[in-house]
Specification:
With 289 residues, the protein is of the alpha+beta class. The chain is built from four helices and 20 strands.
Length: 289
C-alpha cells in the first residue's frame, strides 16, 4: 500500500510504542512503520520507518555536537575564570596572600641583638610605620610580586611587618652577630608561610633588592624604596648586615632597629580567579584560587 503525505495525519493516540534498539520500530495496531511508505516531492519512495530513523539519527548527531560545544565552552570558561598566577602577574603587582594574624601586639621597638618586635595585633600584611626613626615611615602594606622564576612566583612584603635589632660588636670574633642575624631573619620569614600556597620563605636578600633596579643607588621604585629602613638577609664584610635606607640606597649597617621584609616563594601552578581586594584593603590585588 502506498500513501501520500496527506494520508500521514495519524493521531498520536494510535502510536502504541517506540522501541529504539539499533533500528527503530513504530507500531500502529497491526500496521508496522516498516510496511508503510510515502512518496517524497522528488518522486522517490521512502518508508515511514526509514524517514523517522533518519530524523532521529540526525537529532542524535546534533545532540552529540551540542554536548561537545558545551564541553568546549566549560573548558574555556574554566581557563578564563582560573589562570595560573605565573601567567598573568607582573613584577610589582599586588597579590592577596594571607600570612595570618598576629596573636598579640608588641608595639615597643627592639633594642638588643636578635630581638623582633614592633608588630601590631592584626593581619601580618600590615606594616609597622617605622622602626628606627619617625622621620622614615612607610605606608605600604600587603604582598607584591618580587620576581618570577619559571613557574614560581616570589612575593615580598610591601612594607615591613615588624622590626629587628642587629648589633655591630667589634669585640665578637669572626663575623660577629651578622651570621646569627641572617639566620634569625630567614627563620623568622618562615613564620609568614600560610601552609597552603607557600613553599618556602626567607628574608629579602641583597641580590634580590639590587636586581629591582640593577644597582644599589637611591631610587623612586617603591618595590625597593618603602620610605622606611629595613635589613636584608645578606652578610657583608665581617660584622655588618646589608640594609636599605629610606630612599632605596643600599649599604651596610649595624646597631640599629630596622624593619625586615619576608619573601614568600609560592608553589608551582598556583591559580588566580582574577583581581579584587586583598586582606589589608588593596583594591587591585590578584586573588589566589
Amino acid at each position: 500500500m502506498k500513501i501520500t503525505r496527506k494520508h500521514l495525519l495519524i493521531p498520536i493516540s494510535l502510536l502504541v510504542g517506540v522501541i529504539i534498539s539499533g533500528g527503530v520500530g513504530y507500531g500502529m495496531g497491526s500496521v508496522t512503520s516498516s510496511g508503510v511508505s510515502y512518496t517524497k516531492s522528488d518522486g522517490s519512495t521512502v518508508s515511514v520507518k526509514d524517514a523517522l530513523d533518519d530524523v532521529i539519527n540526525k537529532s542524535l548527531v546534533q545532540i552529540d555536537d551540542l554536548k561537545k560545544q558545551v564541553s568546549d565552552l566549560e573548558k574555556k570558561l574554566k581557563v578564563y575564570k582560573y589562570a595560573e598566577l605565573a601567567d598573568v602577574v607582573h613584577v610589582g603587582d599586588y597579590v592577596a596572600y594571607d600570612a595570618g594574624m598576629w596573636p598579640t601586639a608588641s608595639l615597643t621597638k627592639p633594642t638588643q641583638q636578635g630581638q623582633f618586635s614592633g608588630n601590631a595585633a592584626n593581619n601580618k600584611g600590615y606594616s609597622v610605620e617605622w622602626c628606627r626613626s619617625e622621620s622614615y615611615k612607610t605606608t605600604l602594606k600587603g604582598w607584591r610580586v618580587l620576581k618570577k622564576d619559571g613557574r614560581k612566583v616570589y612575593l615580598v612584603h610591601a612594607g615591613q611587618p615588624e622590626c629587628y635589632y642587629h648589633a655591630y660588636d667589634s669585640t665578637v670574633s669572626g663575623s660577629g652577630y651578622a651570621d646569627a642575624s641572617k639566620k634569625l631573619l630567614d627563620e623568622r620569614a618562615k613564620t609568614y608561610m600560610d601552609g597552603i600556597y607557600a613553599e618556602s620563605a626567607h628574608a629579602m636578600t641583597k641580590e634580590e633588592a639590587q636586581a629591582i633596579t640593577g644597582n644599589t643607588n637611591s631610587t623612586t621604585n617603591d618595590l625597593r624604596t618603602t620610605g622606611a629602613e629595613y635589613w636584608l638577609g645578606t652578610v657583608n664584610g665581617s660584622k655588618y648586615l646589608c640594609g636599605v635606607h629610606f630612599d632605596g640606597w643600599m649599604s651596610d649597617f649595624g646597631s640599629y632597629s630596622f624593619g625586615f621584609r619576608p619573601v614568600i616563594v609560592l608553589k608551582s601552578s598556583v591559580f588566580t580567579s582574577g583581581k579584587g581586594e586583598d586582606q589589608v584593603g588593596n583594591q587591585d590585588a590578584w586573588l589566589l584560587a
